[in-house]
Amino acid sequence: MVTGYSLDPHHQANFAKQQFAVIHLPRKKRDRIPATSVKITSDLPTAITQSNPKNYFYPAKVVGPARSSEGTLLYYIIELY
Predict the structure, then answer these.
(1) Domain count within the chain
(2) Which range marks the domain in which residue 15 is found?
């Protein structure tokens, strides 16, 4: 359990891993985002290459997915690059 959120039983193997991703983040003051705004990449250089800050796509390190109490899959942002 992550502060009010439970692990998705179908994705538990992925939850424990920190992964690099490109995330769509119009407001940078968020600590978690919906899975629909996350594209997992193989490594940080790939995430950087695929990012587009002008359109709010940033490279990041994320952990997840976790299921919210409303049933939404979320990723937690560990670090923005």
Answers:
(1) 1
(2) 6-80
